[in-house]
Amino acid sequence: MHARSVVACGLDGRTGELFERRLTPDHGEIVDWSRSLPAPVAVTYEAGPTGFGLARFLATAGLECLVAAPSKLQRPPGDRVKNDARAARHLLHLGQIVEVAVPSVEQEAARDLVRAREDCRGNLMAARHRVSKPLLRHGIVYYGGHARTKVHDTWLHAQHFDAPGLQLAHETASDTMLAAVDRRYRLDVAIAAMATDSDYTPVVTRLGCLRGVSTLTAFGLAVEIGDWQRLTGRPIGAYLGPVPTEHSSGATRSQGSITKTGNGHARRLLIEAAWHHRPRYRPGAELRRRWDHASPAARARGQQANRRLHARWAGFDVRRKRPTLANTAIARELAGWCWSLAVLDT
User: Fold this and answer.
1) Where are the beta strands (DSSP E) in 132-215?
2) 193: Cβ contacts below 8 Å, ≥ 6 apart
3) Are residues 211 and 334 in the same domain?
4) In a domain, 14, yes or no
5) pLDDT in tens, 209-234
6) Domain assignment of residue 53, given as a range
7) Rounded to 5, what percent of the chain is helix, strand, coil?
């Protein structure tokens, strides 16, 4: 599948006859060609930038469609030739396909909203650097307290330079930063509204019983993972990637950095949330407010998880474990607790 072309390959399971055709990305043309093949017909294509629109269209047309995970396709070690035709023939082996869950239109829209907020967060960080770093080069440093406060923003806008070019650059960077802040605020409001009135609301409410998992984080995890029932508490860590790589043989065990496989957006949220379990466990007003909206079973399990994860952090600190490594281990266990709360039947 490409943006402007599709290379299709079909195999008759009874006669072994091979059908090949170069098509356009028009969904109607793909359906017509698929229906021209000997029945019954099953279709597969690799997940990629073209999205899941074709899979939904084929399902609506009554055709079975599997979206294959490209990283799970098995290729012979000696196969060093890659082109569209060979890739299409490789997908004919349906028994070797690892299927990717196709999200609904609503789930994909919610996921796009969460990722737009994450992109805006990165843009805001870059915009803030473009404001502060030129000031630092000219020896202008803010000493009036914490940054990113109203007082700090007033101080930034009060800066004036005699050189017209420098003044224009400062004003442009400041305007860009304010626009990014406004975009982030509008996205936060939209996410909060969707989190309180959508199919994800029960999961968001239960995940909110954990420290560091506020509405934005809980909603992000809910839409990124989608169907929690397809996972279990043990492999969810491997699914999200915060598990160490391993190359062991015989009696020697060698582990390396984390695999970083799976959903990087959900992994970042877990890593960020895991840091909140390091300080002393004293439930604040915001956490208690989230508890009030959850069921007693979810609240009890969330408290158990909070105590457990803080105790794990304390053990790592006693052993003088490197904080970044310890936090990754906490995030891996936090993923299991999130799954436990997400599938809790209350």
Assistant:
1) none
2) none
3) yes
4) yes
5) 999 999 999 999 999 998 898 888 77
6) 6-96
7) 55, 10, 35
